Amino acid sequence: MRTLLVAGNWKMNKTFQEAEVLTEQITEAVEKLHLDSVEVVLCPPAPYLEMVLDLTDETHVAVGAQNISDHDFGAYTGEISAPMLRSMEVEYCIIGHSERRKYFHESNELLAQKVNSALKFGIAPIFCCGEVLSEREGGNHLDVVKSQLEESLFHLEEKDFRNVVIAYEPVWAIGTGKTATPEQAQEMHAYLRQLILSKYGERVAEDAIILYGGSCTAGNAFNLFSQPDVDGGLIGGASLKGEEFVEIVRIAIDCT
Ligand code: PGA
Known about the structure:
By secondary structure, the protein is an alpha/beta fold. It has one domain: TIM Barrel. Helix content is 44%, strand content 15%. An eight-stranded parallel barrel has the order 1-2-3-4-5-6-7-8, surrounded by six helices. Helix 11 links the parallel strand 7 and strand 8. Bound molecules: 2-phosphoglycolic acid.
């Protein structure tokens, strides 16, 4: 039985004070739940990482960054690297979010470097893949995600690949209120697992955590998470509301 994972991607939202309140609200509520088979990760904006790490210390809530540099150290003004995050005890990092691909022109090749750097320093990538609407309408969605995995992840050795979490996020569903149907999500997740099986074998494929992301809310989480190949969610908008995010964690528990 795979662990389910629910990660909140706060993106570029909240003031420091609002983020403190949200962290406290989520952590307090999550600590009252039986989380044996569900992992919870908060991914705040980088300047808030230290605060969120402090408030979640010794709790069941883990912390992730939203992006990292492809370099380890050096003259890269404004960047944040994997060894820096590791030295703060950040455990996860979202890599390859579609907003980074679109607005910051991050290519599959660059993302492979970011994945390498994260893994080298013991940070688990939450690697995002997904097609845009025209690709889905053109029937190319499977090929698009196949290239994303092949070009950014499939150079990894098995032991490293095992530390990667994959998040399937159809770009047309992100922040739009238009969620993939459970059938669309299941079709893609089963395909992703099949690709992993072909590359790394059955055991690795069986253990791989594949999240769904894109307008996932407390209203649709159950139908998505109860699909056999959907192992939780990467939650954007709904992770900014403490009660709703905790409800999504509760739903994940119900689906285990
Ligand atoms: P959304 O964002 O839940 O607001 O659609 C998900 C994401 O971008 O990770």
